[in-house]
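Hi V.,

You were right to ask for the full record rather than a summary. Here it is.
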Amino acid sequence: MTSKEFFIALDLLETEKGISKDKVISSLETALAIACKKNFGEASNVVIKTNPDKFTIRAYICKVVVAEVETPEKEISLEEARTIKKSYKIGDEVLTEIDPRTFGRIAAQNARQVIMNELRQAEKDITYNQFADKENELMVGVVTRVKEDGTIYVEIGKNQMEGVLTVQEQIPGEKYHAGDRIKVLVKRVRDSVGGTQVMLSRASFMFIKRLFESEVPEIRADIVQIKSIVREAGFRTKMAVYSTDPEIDAVGACVGNKGARVNAIVNEINGEKIDIIPWSSDILDFIARALSPAKVLIVQADEELKEAKVIVPDEKLSLAIGKEGQNARLAAKLTGWKIDVKSYSVAMQSGMFDEEDLAVNPDEV
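Predicted structure:
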């Protein structure tokens, strides 16, 4: 590659990859200086001069003119200097150009290696900086490959970075193939020895939150706020919402006209159930709502222990608890309280509640 071709390549790197031309030139100068020292002695004072406008790269050995030479690698006698140029005087610097072709093969390889290392580091830094501030953001990418263990690699970003979607971060039951377009959450960006690693997710609760933010204008405008959200990917999400505007129904805004907004999200997550409930500052009311879709008769709470006892109609017990305890478990995570759910008849027999409480709404039992 000629010097001109090299500088043109640097321009392309800066345009296409965002790698600073000045930084690469600086690395080149360092690499050439190292190569010169390998060839002419470590004590040599090497000067590298690059001129991108003229496409030139020149290397020099710099020696100071002295009356008596003590360090030959760095000094030149006045007598010898004046054989080069008669006007030289004590203290002047004499630059002697080095022909790069005189470099040894090993020195040249070392220079090339330094440049390649700097280029890799520069590209790594750019990639990291591009994605470091995108953690917890939603992106659309293209599946590039699927490994035998189920790990999916997704190309994202303008620089087409390949992110990793592990099996644990996928929604159970989903299948993807190379070429498929896919929405993903940038969960974590790691700067490791091997390069920048972008970890993706579709199983995170934050993925659902970002989907609602993109689908519901009232959330983006902060009129409707997502106060709490929990999820067991592939099965159920519970989300508590609140409206700062009394004229706007928070749940209705998230559901959309004829369910259009929430259905778009449910379709994206392969039919996963989503319970959207109105948030309440009254913890008794909030716990009752959190157990939706089950109907709750009574809630008793111990605020010091953050534990609640809940009674539901007998026929709603399985709905309140959910399959393998999922509904009650998610309600507990949503509220941050421990919730003990009992049926009306069991509560009557065990004395779990005061008789006055149990008789509050006998018609609803």
